[in-house]
Structures are given as structure tokens and as C-alpha cells.
Amino acid sequence: MSVLPRSLFGRLALLLIAVTAIGFVAALLIFRYDRASLAERQFGDTKIAQLETLRAALSSLQSQDRPGFLRRLGKEYGVLLLSVAERPTIGRPALGPRMMELQERLRARLGEDTELRLQPSGEGLIAWIRLTAGDAAYWAGFTLPRADAELPTRVMIWSGTVLIVLLLAAYFFARRMNSPLRQLQDAVAAVGKGRTPPPLPESGPTEIAGLAKGFNRMTSNLKQMEEDRALLLAGVSHDLRTPLARLRLSAEMAVHDETMKEGMIDDIEEMDRIINQFLDFARGEDKTPLAMHDLNALVEECVERCRRKGQAITFVPAPGLPLLPLRAQSIERALVNLIDNAYRYGSPTVDIVVRQEANNAVIEIADRGPGIPPSEVERLKQPFTRLDTARGSAAGGKLGSGLGLAIVDRVVTLHGGEFTLLLRQDGGTLARIALPLPAMTGR
């Protein structure tokens, strides 16, 4: 499992925060190192001056007064004084660049026989310096400042303030950089659902502005192609209605063979039905506003219309179903397409059930035809696609326009619902429409 955020915004924000934090910590370490070096250098300059004065005082020291005088002198100068004759060696040699630099400075000022040694103690590190004064040598010891001394409170407060400001700036910078990509993601999702998103702002960095400009041009071309196709379908369909009406009238008046007349009228009605589907598809999305409707009543109206044509339908409504925000004409068009499909490709009897499931109102239209393979369901929702095998033969060679299921899917999607085709138990197809209840839509 990756520890990195999955979104580009999260990764960009993490990168900026990490770079800011690393830079801030590095600045603090450098400040701390320079502060320790500066304190050590200042400490060395002060002590060298004191040691020169101390060496002059030790040079005049008489041997008979040495023990008591060393104690008084050490107290006066704030150092520890020991005779080299009594303590030939002490501590360990000085190591490290800063200590070696201090020792060279001591030798330059106090003589080449000056030696620097270090000894840890409870109060810190004691630096012992060997001084030659007159005919004797002495150890002068003083405590070095701690290298890990705490930073001043004011520095920590200001540093924390600067860090917070930098992190906030990094966050808003990452958010601003990610905003056009988020808009592009939403626009691509809208195109995937068949909608035309509003144009993206063509501003920002060159790469993002170019991407937005190309996407806007693409959506504009897609919209123009869709409008041209709808205009073509509507024009062709409309122009065919008049000659079809004349053909039907001529068949009823001129053809005396009843069997041939019925066959011709059936063919003309089939062509008229296909043209109606072309017109429905060419209309595109229904622009009428949503209104509260009784779904049971809409379904029952479609059922009664089909029963008047002599079609056998069983209908079971959902008791207590609340009103739904619907476009009634679009819903009726979708139901009629599904019922027609069930009769054309299924059994003489169609079963319709309306029920409430969780937060959805569900319409199920079932037939006893050969069914639709699950692998073909999504393909059949696309315009101008048909299943040319079992269901085609069941329709007696009348394959239709391939627009019925596409119209149903568009209507259901427009209402925020879900349209699925399932295999019915014991054979057949179950067309299922799930429409969200008002509590889920927020209306």
C-alpha cells in the first residue's frame, strides 16, 4: 500500500510542505551551529586576554606563597589553577576543527608550549590550558559553553510563525495549482455521462491553459456534431411521415387482398414507430422542468393505453409511494419503449411491478423472451445497436432502429436514476428502472 496521497493535490501539497520543512530545519541547524561557533570565538578572545593577564600575575609568584596565592588568583579570575608539577597531565587532547583552531590561537598569543586539553564534568566541558609563567608551568581550567544550548525563546516563536506562514502558503499554492485540474476532471466526468459541461477557464500556467483550450474546442465540436446529427434525424424523420401516411391510405383503399393489406399496414406502422423513435432521440434532453408526479399513476396510464391496443399486461403498484420529481412525458416515453420491446421480443404477457426499495422507487418490466446476455447489456444501451441473434429472430425479422434502449437510458440518467437489464428467473428479460426518492435528490 502506497503511503503517498492518491490525488495530485495531496502529492503536490506534501512535496511543498516537505521542502519547506526541510529548509526550515536546515536553517535552524545552521543558525544553531553559527551561534555556537560565535559564542565559542567570543569566549576564546575573552579568555586569551584573561590568560595573558593571569600569566603575568603568575610570573611574579614566589614559591613559598604558591598554594594559597593560586586559590585566591583562581577565585579572582574565575578559573581553576593547578601546578603542572603536581598534575603533569589532565583530560584528553583537543580534537575537532573548532578546538584545534582555538589551540592555534592560544599558541600564537601565549607561546608554542601552550597546550589545550579537554575534560568532561557535570557542569559541561572543562578546557585546561597549559601556561608557562616564569620558571613554572600551570594548568588554567575554565568551562566551555554548551554547544547544544537552547535557542532563545524569541527565535523559536518567530521561527514557528514563519513555518506556519510557509505551510499555509504552500497549501494554498497547491490548491490553486490543482483547481484547474479538478475542473477538468469534473468536465470529463460530465462528458462521460453525456452532458455538455460549461467552458473551462483558459487561464493559469501555459500547459494547463493549453489543455483547457483544447478541451473546450473538443466539447464544442462534440456539441456541434450532436446538434447536426439531431437535425439530420429530425429532418429525415419528419420528411418520411407524409409519404408513409399516403402509403397507408393507398394500401387501405387500393389493396383488396386482406392478408396483403394487413401486412402492408403492419410494415407501415413499424416504419412509423421507427420514425417516432428517431424523433424522440433527435429531441435530446427534455428541457421541461421537473414536477411532482405519482409514479403509480404514470405507469398505470401507460398500461391502460397498451391494454386498449389489446396487449395483455399485469400491473402491481407500490402502496404509499411518495410523489417524485419527474418529467412525465419523458418517463412515459421510456415506459412505452420498454413495453414495446417486451412484446416484440418476449411473451404475449408482460408483467410490470412498482415497488419502493431503500431510497429508490423501482419499476420492473418483465417478459418471457430469450433474454439478453449480460455481456451485451451495456452495448445495447448505445444508439443504433441491436442484438441480432435470439431476440432478432423472436421479432419475426423486425429489428427496429436500435434506439429504444438508448432513449430509456438517457431519460433515466436525466432523472438521476439507474437503468439495468437483467436475466429473469426461468427465462426472459427484466428491465429495471431505479429512480431516487425526493430525500435522496435533495428536492
How would you describe this structure to a colleague?
It is built from 12 helices and 12 strands. The protein is of the alpha+beta class. The strands form 3 sheets. It has a 5-stranded antiparallel beta sheet with strand order 1-5-4-3-2. Strands 7-9-10-12-11 form a 5-stranded mixed beta sheet. The radius of gyration is 47 Å and the shape is rod-shaped. Residues about 390-400 have low confidence and may be disordered.
Strand order of the largest sheet: 1-5-4-3-2
Bin the helical content: 55-70%
Please provide the count of β strands.
12
Order of helices and strands: HHEEHEEEHHHEHEEHEEHHHEEH
CATH fold label of the domain at 288-441? Heat Shock Protein 90
Query: How far do the termini sit from each other?
Result: 40 Å
- The helix-and-strand class reads alpha+beta
How many separate helices?
A: 12
Q: Can you tell me the CATH superfamily of the domain at 288-441?
A: Histidine kinase-like ATPase, C-terminal domain
Task: Indicate the topology.
Elements: H1 8-59, H2 66-77, E1 80-83, E2 92-93, H3 97-110, E3 115-121, E4 124-133, E5 136-143, H4 153-192, H5 206-254, H6 258-283, E6 291-293, H7 295-308, E7 312-316, E8 324-326, H8 328-345, E9 349-357, E10 360-366, H9 377-380, H10 390-394, H11 404-414, E11 418-423, E12 429-436, H12 438-441
Parallel strand pairs: 7-9
Antiparallel strand pairs: 1-5, 2-3, 3-4, 4-5, 6-8, 9-10, 10-12, 11-12
Helix pairs in contact: 1-3, 1-4, 4-5, 5-6, 7-8, 8-11
